[in-house]
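Technical note accompanying the year-one report. For the benefit of new consortium partners, we illustrate the data format agreed upon in the data management plan: each record pairs a sequence with a structure-token string. No post-processing was applied to the example shown here.
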Amino acid sequence: VQLQASGGGLVQSGGSLKLSCQASGRTYNNYVMGWFRQVPGKEREFVARSSRNGGTRDYTDSVKGRFTISKDNAKNTDYLQMNNLQPEDTAVYYCAASTFVWSATRDAAYYQYWGQGTQVTVSS
């Protein structure tokens, strides 16, 4: 599967952005989809994930209540709606796809396919 992430940009603190991850291929529903972020000098950090059918969602604590992951199977697209953005959310955001079991997929090492990353910058 190939992934194309988009939707990043510059926003003020408290603002919103919606990231998209367009997946190619006919087996889109075979993958756990995840969002990660990375700032220079730090490891890639788990943000959110959704199960293969989208019925189960999981978030890192720092974004709970602010970010929502969703999927549109008809469009082979996952979304990350980010509200009340804060300067500490500034990072390059990546979408990723995994064939591993759900329990493993908070770990970036278990994702085989990655989008190219989209920059999110939140000004204070």
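Partners are asked to follow this layout when depositing records. The chain has no helices and eleven strands.
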